[in-house]
Amino acid sequence: MTTLYWYDGAGYLGVVLVLLAFLLLQAHKLHGTGLTYQLMNLVGALGVLLSLTFGGHNWSAFVMELAWLLISVYGVLRGVRQRRAARAGQRDAQGGR
Question: d(Cα 14, Cα 39) in Å, to the nearest integer?
Answer without folding.
Answer: 11
